[in-house]
């Protein structure tokens, strides 16, 4: 059986903010056959992308390089930034306005991870839509 994968990549400069990343991601996901039947998965991916781009901009003081890849089983989301420091989940207090990004991604994704790369790090997440088999 041949594996058909599709993917997209885009860089989001700090000056663009995260809105452009959310909109770009939502537009790409709309082309996937399961997206219309899986609005909750689409929303989860868009929220995770928003959190990861925000972390790249705010904590790494870096542009965010986003790659989305659909392999027929998992939508892989990867955000690379230029800071090699791996994020550490932290405990946020109820009144805190930040500090929940990694925890949000952990809760939304089926799998997630992070790794140092040349010139920075990548944080990745995998989302498995329930209706992917209906392709």
TrEMBL record:
Xref: Pfam families: HATPase_c_2
Entry keyword set: ATP-binding, Kinase, Nucleotide-binding, Serine/threonine-protein kinase, Transferase
Recall the GO molecular function terms of this protein's record.
Answer: ATP binding
Note the InterPro entries from the entry. Answer: Anti-sigma-factor_SerPK, HATPase_C_sf, HATPase_dom
**Where does this protein come from, organism-wise?**
Streptomyces dubilierae
What is the protein name for this chain?
ATP-binding protein
Name the domain of life: Bacteria
Coiled coil feature spans = none
What SUPFAM superfamilies does UniProt report for this protein, alphabetically? ATPase domain of HSP90 chaperone/DNA topoisomerase II/histidine kinase
Q: Which residues form the Histidine kinase/HSP90-like ATPase domain?
A: 35-126
């Amino acid at each position: 059986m041949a594996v058909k994968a599709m993917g997209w990549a885009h860089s989001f400069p700090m000056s663009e903010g995260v809105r452009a990343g959310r909109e770009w991601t939502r537009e790409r996901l709309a082309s996937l056959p399961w997206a219309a039947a899986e609005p909750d998965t689409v929303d989860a991916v868009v929220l995770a992308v928003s959190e990861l781009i925000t972390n790249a901009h705010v904590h790494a003081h870096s542009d965010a390089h986003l790659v989305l890849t659909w392999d027929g089983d998992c939508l892989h989301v990867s955000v690379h930034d230029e800071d090699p420091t791996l994020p550490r989940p932290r405990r946020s207090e109820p009144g805190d306005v930040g500090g929940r990004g990694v925890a949000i991604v952990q809760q939304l994704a089926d799998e997630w991870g992070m790794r140092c790369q040349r010139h920075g790090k990548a944080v990745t997440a995998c989302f498995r839509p329930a209706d992917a088999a209906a392709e």
